[in-house]
Specification:
Layout (H helix, E strand, L loop, with lengths): L21 E4 L10 E3 H4 L5 E5 L4 H6 L7 E7 L5 E6 L5 E6 L6 H12 L4
Parallel strand pairs: 3-4
Antiparallel strand pairs: 1-2, 1-4, 3-5, 5-6
Amino acid sequence: MDVRYDLGDDHRLVGTLCPDMKLTLERPDPDVVTAVTRSADLLRAGRGLLLDLVDRAEVHAAAAGWTGRVNTVTARTDRVDVDASLIRPDGCVACALPTGAVPRRHQLVRALSTWIGQPA
């Protein structure tokens, strides 16, 4: 659990397994029984997960080309060190947007292309 892979990003979460966070979904999926879930539950689909913790339009726009392979979820949690994170299907955090940072669309698009494939 304490392994950290060098994925070329210095955010402390990148390259580690996604912590199992309690989440309150902003727009619950009809397939989800409750609006409160855990990050591990969202990874069960075996798809990439873009977890947006502050509902940033830029994050959703950057991931638009990958909607067939990545679940984009807006949720609230008590974590304060990240605004959004891209989590690979194996649970490894591939990209993290630090709290309050200016969204770097190219960083997210590069991570999506690298770990999920080219956009549809």
